[in-house]
Amino acid sequence: MTTILTIANQKGGVGKTTTALTLAHGLARRGKRTLLLDFDPQGQTARALHLSPSAGIYALLTMDTGFNETAYIQNKIMETRRENLWLLSGNKQTADAQAMINSQGKPISWVQETLERFCTSQYHYLVLDTAPSLGGIQEHVLWASDMVIVPTPAEALGSDGLRQVLDTMKRLSAEKGWKGGLFGVLPTFLMEQVKEHRINLDAMRVNLGELILPPIHRAVVLAECPAFGKTIFEHAPDSRAAEEYARLVDIVLKA
Q: How far is CA 224 from CA 47, 152, 204, in A?
């Protein structure tokens, strides 16, 4: 059985792509066949691995190939040179796919149906990275998810994006009958010496309790990873950041 796990926040710069990529690699390192799908038109996950962004997500969502669609989609899935980890990249054409979905009035289940048709049979986990604000397609991606992780910085300005994505999930459950759920909120860029961060982290724990995951501290080594085309497990495996993300992997595997 394949678990679909989405990393989402309607605010940018919260550590979303870092979390999606690191979690996917962490699962792969534990022997789980993992496909990372990048629904962001910027294609940052591919660039973070020193790969070229491609129109893989566009192909998945439009399936307007005119020939063997399954073979075509499989050909778009990229090797990452890491055991058990593959990538279906996005690029600027992902925005065109969004426009197509909206103009054709595709059902909320459209992304889920395409994932089940082309991706779920081969993998233990699908990890979906989303753009901060991608219109209707973000709702389609959330609908496809079994679990959602919301990275959010431990600062006052981070609360808006968190609240927006939680509201979206509540609406999908209430109005559309979504069966997935919030796996947890992941505090990111934490600096415990900053009073605001401590106050906001405490407030999140009061409001959301056990849904607040162990935080990821701000770390230079995490910022360095894209320059080397590596994840934190490769770039600085003995760092606190690697330990913190490994702990997140443990929590997901135990779910």
A: 13, 20, 28
Name the percent of the chain lying above pLDDT 90.
Answer: 69
Q: Kindly tell me the burial class for residue 41, based on how many C-beta atoms sit within 10 Å of its own C-beta (0-12, 13-18, 19 or more).
A: buried
Task: Give me the sheet containing 3-7, strands edge to edge.
Answer: 78-82, 85-88, 34-38, 125-129, 3-7, 147-153, 181-188
CB 184 within 8 A of CB 5: no
Taking alpha carbons only, the member of 149, 167, 164, 156 closest to residue 215 is: 149
Question: In CATH, what number is assigned to the domain containing residue 166?
Answer: 3.40.50.300
Q: From CA 153, how far away is CA 189, in angstroms rounded? A: 6
Residue 83: which domain range? 3-254
Per-residue pLDDT at 187 exceeds 90: yes
User: Which uninterrupted H or E stretch holds 197?
Assistant: helix 195-208
Tell me if 134 sits within 8 A of 97, measured CB to CB: no
pLDDT in tens, 219-231: 999 999 999 999 9
Q: ∠12-209-203 over CA atoms, to 5°? A: 60
- Closest by CA to 134, choosing from 235, 12, 252, is 12
Total structural domains within the chain: 1
